[in-house]
Amino acid sequence: MDNITHSIKEGCGNPMCNNAYCKSNPEHSSISENEMGDFVVLTAINEYKECCKFITPKQIYSMTPNDVFQLPIEAYLNDNSLKASFRDFPDNCSSRPKGFEYINHQSIFLFMNFLFNVSNPETIKKVFNSISLVQPEQRVLFLCVPYQTKYHNYYGALFKLITENPINKEVIHQFLCQMSPEHLRQVHFLVHSFLDEMFKQGSVQRSNKYPFMIYALRLFKILYEMNIANEFIDYKSFYVYSINIKREWSDDFDLFFKNKEGLLSYSFIIELYTRVLVVHEENRCEQQLTLSGAIQNNFFELFSPYLELRIDRDNLLLSSLNSLVNKRPIDLKKELKIKFIGEVGVDQGGVSKEWFSLIVKELFKVDFGMFTYNNKTRQFWFCSFADDLQDFKLIGIVLGLAIYNNIILDISFPSILYKKLLDIPLTFDDYNILDPEVYNSLMQLKEMSKVDDVSSLQLTFEAVQNYFDENRSYELIPGGRDIIVTNQNLQLYLDRYADFYCTSSVQKQFDAFKQGFRQVVSSPLLLSMRPEELELVICGTKEYDFDALERNAKYKDYTPNSPQIKYFWEIAKSLTLEQKKKLLIFVTSNDRVPVGGLGNLIFFIDRYGDPEKFPTASTCFNALHLPPYENKEIMKEKLLFAIENAVGFGLA
């Protein structure tokens, strides 16, 4: 009866209490002092209902692990208790909190960590079993549990209970959005650890055999999308490196081609190098389907596994464009074979590499007029005055061909290009990437507007471009020549100015470029990449790790312990960065490092040639022909001369 009296007079402290007589219940029934005695007795006899137990952040912060161990855990894991717990209710709270109002995430994480660290497995099992009895919107609280390998099998069921109701996606998002970056990283660790352990155990070689994977991936995708909007962790932290390229992918592709949910629907968790290999496997499957169709329709004799182009070296661009522009997308994804008209030779990779190199150099010549070059950023951008749109379409096709032929291109675009290719909207701040100098000037205007009136500068809504020493003016908005920039319309001016240079002034050129690129690249596995990832696939990395190159190197008539091989790697690792690039050009015809680093570059060294001769190379096979020099000094002298004078030494 004391408990009932306390509830009536003081309340239990829970604004979400449902007990009709509890003062904390915003909808409680008032009882006068005269009625109190009889009411308490009758309630105690007939319908006594104890107010739900709940735990406040303040209580948690003062707890010790032993206090948690002694708690009647089950009493705190029912639906009503969870609704009230972990909230910092304001004094005299007079209404029921909505959603996750007043929730204190730090207290949830602390409590769950205490619980998992001091409880025995049976108690933890009860905790997991209790989740199914809780209303869906309260289950998200259990995203704050720590990951412990010994409870691995329970987490899959937890993720299922949290995500199986489609309506709950919004609840999950709402709950996570209120978390600090530190707490989001803890939830990320929970889901990532579960997925990593699952793939390590090999229990998901086939996606359709392990449905819990999908529930974890749904949750991980919510975190991934939140991270895109407001980064709380490096995007590479979403990679699950235990996904093995040697896994059985047939079921994954079967689901993928049928637009059904599977691992490839969440390709952001696949490390980039492995994902590129998966893209090639996807293409192989598509080519196989095309071949099967050709056989069934008696067109087999017309089917070629290669994209064969006959190119006139003296008319490189036109012959390349004519050879490519009308090809079917499925044909553009085939392995490229180049035949230069009038020249002897079979393309085993080297001729194609040369074609890519020649066409990129031609198209990116500043005097050719397709692109402008920023000397400070050392990057190219579309020339708004260029009017041969077919050439832009050609370079777009070339970028796509490079992806499917494992060619790293020596091009340098600002990263906004890859955003635009992936249909990611640009912002004013993206202009900083295109032209940092002008961007900083615009930011000075913004700072000026805080203390002064920018209208004093007499700026108008115009942009000026120089065309053959002639300045041409363009209105940023209708009638812009007559509209003065003021503090009130400054942000509009900044946005339109950035949009003009990033988008509207080069819209025709970019659209043609994108059309060519998309003619080759249509796979969701590529188009769902981040801009940084797509840039790496096309342009490679800048990490020249020669230790990784050595670990993956193959030898013929040498061994890793041969004196000449030891000499070579000692020399190679001591080279300057520019010399290392020249060595790569000499052997592979490219100084760019492929996705995954030099450890994923095929690199052969064979014993070939007279010790009096210089080293040579076969760029078709990334092979260095290294004579058996008798000491390191001679080898270094010969090798440096060869790479510094590479033209004429390579045997394509």
TrEMBL record:
Keywords per UniProt: Ligase, Transferase, Ubl conjugation pathway
EC class name: transferase
PROSITE patterns membership: HECT (PS50237)
EC number: 2.3.2.26
Gene3D superfamilies recorded: Hect, E3 ligase catalytic domain, Hect, E3 ligase catalytic domains
Biological source species: Entamoeba nuttalli (strain P19) (Amoeba)
Residues of the HECT domain: 328-652
The protein, known as: HECT-type E3 ubiquitin transferase
Active site annotation, chain numbering: C620 (glycyl thioester intermediate)
Gene Ontology molecular function: ligase activity; ubiquitin protein ligase activity
SMART domains: HECTc (SM00119)
Catalytic activity: S-ubiquitinyl-[E2 ubiquitin-conjugating enzyme]-L-cysteine + [acceptor protein]-L-lysine = [E2 ubiquitin-conjugating enzyme]-L-cysteine + N(6)-ubiquitinyl-[acceptor protein]-L-lysine
GO biological process: protein polyubiquitination
